[in-house]
Amino acid sequence: MLSAKEVLSKDRVGKKVEVRGWIYRTRSSGGIVFAVLRDATGIVQVTIKKGNVPEDQFAAATKAGIESSVIIAGEVAEDKRAPGGYEIRASKFLVVGDSEAFPITEYQSTELLLDLRHLWIRSREQTAISRIKASLLRGAREWYHENDYVEVTPPIITGVAPEGSTTLFQVKYYDRIVYLSQSAQFYLESLIYSLERVWALTPSFRAEKSRTPRHLSEYWHMEMEAAWVDNEGNMKVQEELVTAMVRNALKECPDEFKLLKRDIRSLKKIEPPFERMSYDEAMEYLQKKGHEISWGSDLGAVEERTLTIDREIPLFVVNYPKELKPFYMKENPDDPRTYKNSDLLAPEGFGEIIGGSERETDNALIMERLKEKCEDTKSYEWYLDLRKYGSVPHSGFGLGMERIVTWVCKLDHIRDATPYPRTVARVYP
Ligand code: 4AD
Ligand code: MG
Question: Does 131 lie in the same domain as 83?
């Protein structure tokens, strides 16, 4: 048994091969059926000629609709008109699973494709995106491993809200209400006292009521935390990690980028160091570009777009005003109105893919901020303990996997960066 990709080679010409997969396209004229077979590796054309296969198999080939699963044997021939330049001239055509009239045809509304997501994920675009996502993940895993980070498994059910209580999903947990995790950060922080460098890939949940092309209610969050690392060291990790991820995808997925028509010239230029721009400088730049904002305004999608649209390399924005960020960040001694933190913005207009910071180690400051935010300090007692027993400077960050996929694949909407997007309006299928 060969894969579609393996068939497409000069060495196969004249040889007998067997393939299996799903019918991607089919048409028949007179005594000949032209079918295109799709498998996990790609597509290959098959011609089934009356007389070259048993009569019942020819009849089955004529009838077999799109998405029927089939096993086909035949001889490989060169054919310039076929996708990939080769085709199989069939001597055997077996239907494994019939397909009813496939509900997805060429022009479909976005809504219908979302309703039929369980079938639409068979599309070649979605397949390419899944492969690129896996390749980015593999690049990250290898980088972490080479740099002595230990992969850990934090809980998803939790009583803490690192990113503020407004976006929490509540779940009934026996006779109590608890939350779905927004971030594993606090648990990762607790693990650095033994392992020093840790990372985790977990689902994170955000009840984001606004519908935007970059927010999901559930996303895959890749987080890291390290002892003895300051904010600058934290940014070095981010630029190395992102570079390793992108390079791995470029190496493993050239065909997938081609299929998505993603121009990879700019991705090839990515290497450390990434430029650092202070929040103050970002404000100045945005004001010059005509944005009506002032010190203390948050940077939303529109502002991040202006900051990155003409860039090919990601950009760090550092030292945000305290009001804009969560309570756990370390005060910036050079300007105590701000934190020692960074957001990493992807270029080409995409914006934030990572949020990170050095962590506050002063429990009195943490308590003060929690009270200001009217948080129930009881749930954070264990978190404060971490500063009581051998506290160390430490930093970490969270990278949104679907955000980086959206940028790397240059997608219009984050929902295509995951097989089953969860949004305000949708939990089906
Ligand atoms: O900036 P955020 O909220 O930071 C944290 O959660 C920190 N506790 C992480 C840490 O330091 N360990 O989220 C981190 C990243 C964002 O930069 C973004 O890429 C992604 O998570 N993200 C989302 N992705 C998709 N949909 C959403 N609703 C997202 N919210 C955040
Ligand atoms: Mg953020």
Answer: no
